[in-house]
Design goal:
Layout (H helix, E strand, L loop, with lengths): L19 H9 L6 H11 L6 H13 L1 E4 L7 H12 L13 E4 L4 H7 L6 E5 L10 H13 L4 E5 L2 H5 L3 H15 L3 E5 L8 H13 L4 E3 L11 H18 L4 E3 L7 H14 L12 E3 L2 H14 L12
Parallel strand pairs: 1-2, 1-8, 2-3, 3-4, 4-5, 5-6, 6-7
Helix pairs in contact: 2-10, 3-11, 3-12, 4-5, 6-8, 9-10, 10-11
Length: 320
């Protein structure tokens, strides 16, 4: 398995982060994105059809890649416990159904989520750094991370300072990610760009490289809290970035599209993108995740359809 992410001081691109000037020069030297070509390739890959046996495999793989998520102001311990139970046993009528990769909650719900999935391999992820807007001082963001880690979070999902990025303060974004990575300790770090606010594909590419250079374990499209979230095109662009980063450094980084992926058909399209762009090494929940809540329900219904030849009734799956 490829090595875990190193710091910018350890890998082959260390010179790129030596100063604000070198980082800016590196980012501006990245190839410009052909938007028409990118979208055409994403659309073409989305038309691929797969056989029934491959579809069954893809559905199980997609279930195993879900970060089952609840990030609402109305979250209660009971709701989080129910979500944890669903992550551990998604289909009580079929124990062969894979578990989800993780449950994703706010920091104050981490301990509840940990208790709900105790004794299993389901991880607990927590959003932090003043999610979703990220509008807070760095010490507040780091305290947010520390709270989640001390409560037992296995993974931290942070948001970048989009204002700093769009103002061209790339080193500030880089240094903030580095600080959060350090505060996360052994927890894996997912860096959220909020691609819908970055405006251009070139910006998404640059943000991807900043995150990877800073030591992200995953790069993630979105919070799910804005109008434009994960799309095939922006996910394809990020998959190209992690592929190229590994070619340059030997370091493998995960990708997590989040928000707007609701159907099995959508999930399969994204898995085709992974396989055709980054390769089979990323077809594992250690390297690819779906940030989703309603997606699991559709995957479960499609799974039963393949097994029985008919769709289940409306009471077959729980409503999150």
């Amino acid at each position: 398995m490829p090595t875990a992410p190193a710091t910018a001081k350890e890998h082959a691109l260390a010179d790129a982060t030596a100063s604000e000037a070198t980082l800016r020069r590196f980012l501006q030297g990245l190839p410009g994105v052909d938007a028409v070509g990118l979208e055409a390739r994403a659309a073409a890959l989305g038309t691929r059809s797969i056989k029934a046996a491959a579809k069954a495999y893809a559905i199980d793989l997609a279930i195993s890649m879900i970060d089952l998520t609840t990030l609402e102001g109305a979250d209660t311990p009971g709701k989080v416990r129910a979500l944890g139970a669903k992550a551990v046993n998604p289909d009580p009528t079929d124990r062969s159904t894979p578990r989800t990769a993780a449950v994703c909650v706010y920091p104050d719900m981490v301990a509840t989520a940990k208790a709900a999935v105790a004794g299993t391999d389901v991880k607990v992820a927590s959003v932090a750094t003043a999610f979703p807007a990220g509008r807070a001082a760095l010490d507040v963001k780091l305290a947010d991370v520390q709270d989640a880690v001390e409560a037992g979070a296995d993974e931290i999902d942070m948001v970048i300072d989009r204002g700093a990025f769009l103002a061209g303060h790339y080193m500030k974004v880089y240094e903030e990610i580095r600080a959060v990575k350090e505060a996360s300790g052994s927890a894996r770090l997912k860096v959220i760009f909020e691609t819908g606010e970055l405006s251009t594909y070139d910006n998404i590419r640059r943000a991807s490289w900043i995150g990877m250079l800073a030591g992200a374990d995953f790069i993630k499209t979105s919070t799910g809290k804005v109008g434009v979230n994960a799309t095939p095109a922006n996910t394809l662009l990020m998959l190209e970035a992690v592929r190229d980063f590994r070619a340059a450094t030997g370091i493998q980084i995960g990708v997590k599209p989040a928000g707007g992926i609701r159907t099995s058909k959508d999930a399969v399209k994204f898995l085709v993108l992974v396989n055709e762009t980054a390769g089979e090494d990323w077809l594992d929940n250690h390297w690819f995740r779906f940030g989703a809540s309603s997606l699991l329900n559709d995957l479960l219904m499609q799974r039963q359809k393949l097994a029985t030849g008919r769709y289940s009734g409306p009471d077959y799956v729980t409503v999150d």
